[in-house]
Amino acid sequence: MNIGDNDIIIFNPNYRIKNDLNRQILYAANSTIDSSYNFSLKWRSTIHPFFGELFNMFDSSLPFGKVCELLCEQFNLSKISMANILSPFVENEEGFYTEYMGAKIKFPKKTLVRLKDGEVCATATVNRPQIEKYEYRDQQVDLSFDRFRKAPDNILFVLTTKCPVNCAYCYCDKKTHYKPLSIERIYHIIDEAYQLGVSYIDTVGGEIFSHPHWDKIVKKLVDMDMSPSYISTKTPVTPRILSQLSQTGYKGVIQFSLDSLSEEILMKTIQAWPNYKKEFIDGVRLLDNHNYRIQVNTRLTSLNCNPDQINMLYSFIQTINNLEYWEIRIANDSLYPQEAWNSIKPTPKDLKDIFSYINDNIALSSHIKLLVSDNALSLPKRCLRMGHRNIEGGICGMLQDRMVILPDGKVTACEELYWHPHYIIGDLNNSSISEIWQSKEVHSLLNPKKESFSGHCSVCDQFSECTNLRNRCPVKTIRAFGKEKYGFPDPRCQFAPPFNTNKYI
Fold first, then answer.
1. Out of 272, 365, 401, 402, which residue is the most buried by the measure of CB atoms under 10 Å away?
2. pLDDT of residue 123
3. What is the pLDDT of residue 43?
4. Which residues pair with 100 in a beta bridge?
5. What is the dihedral sign for C-alpha 29, 31, 37, 43?
6. Are strands 24-28 and 44-47 parallel, antiparallel or unpaired?
7. Predicted local confidence at residue 124, as pLDDT
8. Which residues contact 85 (CB under 8 A, 6 or more apart)?
9. Number of C-alpha atoms within 13 angstroms, CB side, residue 241?
10. What is the DSSP string of 41-95?
11. Each residue of 184-204: pLDDT tens digit?
């Protein structure tokens, strides 16, 4: 591409760069900052700091020729050499990679772009946290892509465990008492996350709308370009909630949890109040009429595991104009079970029959996007061959890119483990995000020793391979064997002891 010395070239405003100890991360913003510039959605790649220094010079304050001159002086290169280095990044239509010291460094499309005619230059760097000067030598840079090293890529902030309903299958720990963080402390945590280049912060409950300052928190996240990727609720949305939501500037997805349109069933499964169904439907209509994107999540129980109930839901969901998708899934056994769960737990036959009905009568002909998740029905399958690499199922993402903050500021390794003492890795009341992310507690969970496990794991000759593959799930293990048996083998492992196979783990 021909680039004139007077052209204004900028680093695409939809991308970010952050330091990650001995490398840098190039990533796409969580939401589109400037729609006039195309970019690679959800991009993440490790880059050498050399490229970070190049890109950070393109802040729209100087024409291309002057930027090249400055870079030539900084790196002792000729103008032709620097132009050859930079040209592949300018308005590139596809992502590509280059090799540096034996490592492939990947770059997204449209890394550098021409400033649009008439655009105010300041918009090119809007909402970018300041990148500290990176001091490096080539032998110190490690470009392998593993876990995020300095700080998490994103955060799940459990603002509260309060909820106006009480789902029989709820996986939230509602029994632990805690002192909630003050709004000032929450703001401080958000500010620190911003400076660390955290991509986004999801805010959940319990029920997010039950937190007294939910709207202030969401607004601050939106203003700092760390908007939640979704908001999940079972609360009927009222005009007041809509007004608060509108004032936050949040434009993302609203995920509604809806298991039935029968008031009797809703009272049994989530302890809904009289008139809940009407209020809930009115709330969905209200958001739909204001063009919020909507997802619907349905959990299967013995009470809605029949064609009549599914068809009733389908008839309603089809009328949502801004529907993203409808997901139907099995309710797993909770680590914090409610007494009512056993009375409404579906049998494997119930589930197989309803999934068969959905696939044959709805999925094939439906014009809406339908996601059917039946993994819990088929797991756990025992590994019949040696080695954890043969266990079916995904790998564990614990502590790879996400930090989970509890309502009192404690940090847990997994959103379903809450205050389990073995998985608490720090406390944001007296430590920083980066200190916790790089702490010895995190290191111990990521690089466990045999003696910290029990049962066969403590003597298994495949312990290191199992740990490195990360397909042992502590949640499944605790579901199968109990809270104190977290060190047992994954229930899918052939060396795991017997357990209650009636559980959906």
1. 272
2. 43
3. 95
4. 103
5. positive
6. antiparallel
7. 43
8. 54, 77
9. 22
10. TT-EEEE-HHHHHHHHT-BSSS-HHHHHHHHHHHHT--HHHHHHHHGGGBT-SS-
11. 999 999 999 999 999 999 999
Query: Which of 339, 237, 324 minimizes the C-alpha distance to 280?
Result: 237
Task: Count Cα atoms within 13 angstroms, Cβ side, for 102.
Answer: 5
- Region 328-347 average pLDDT: 91
Report the C-alpha gap between 162 and 454 in whole angstroms: 35
Rg over CA atoms, the chain:
25
Q: What is the pLDDT of residues 471-493, one digit of tens each?
A: 889 999 999 999 999 999 888 88
User: Which two structure tokens, joined as six digits, stand for 395?
Assistant: 């790998």
pLDDT tens-digit readout, 19-72: 998 899 999 988 777 788 999 999 999 999 989 989 989 988 899 999 999 999
Cβ pair 322, 367 in contact under 8 A: no
The amino acid at 467 = T
- Whether 279 contacts 261, CB under 8 Å: no
User: Which residues lie below 8 Å from residue 322, measured CB to CB, with a gap of 6+?
Assistant: 288, 291, 292, 293, 294
Residue that has been written with the tokens 């795991």 in this structure: 496
Q: What is the pTM of this model?
A: 0.92
* 230-233 and 24-28 strand pairing: unpaired
| Bond before 455 cis per omega within 30 degrees | no
Asked if pLDDT for residue 180 goes beyond 50, the answer is yes
Whole-number Å distance between alpha carbons of 384 and 51: 47
Residue 402 bridge partners (DSSP) = 154
424-427 vs 103-107, strand pairing mode: unpaired
| pLDDT (0 to 100) of residue 275 | 96
- pLDDT at residue 99, rounded to an integer: 87
Give the closest residue to 217 by CA, choosing from 246, 242, 187, 191: 187
| pLDDT bracket for residue 305 (50, 70, 90) | very high
Secondary structure (DSSP) of 244-289: HHHHHT--SEEEEE---S-HHHHHHHH-PPTTHHHHHHHHHHHHHH
Question: H or E element: which one contains 108?
Answer: none
The amino acid at residue 415 is E
| Partner residues linked to 412 by β-bridges | 404, 424
**Which of 144-148, 159-163, 419-423, 498-502 comes out lowest in average pLDDT?**
498-502
387 touches 462 (CB < 8 A):
yes
**Whether 468 contacts 454, CB under 8 Å:** no
Q: How many other C-beta atoms can be found within 10 angstroms of the C-beta atom of residue 84?
A: 11
Whether residue 407 has a cis bond before it, omega within 30° of 0 = no
The Cα–Cα gap between 493 and 392 comes to: 10
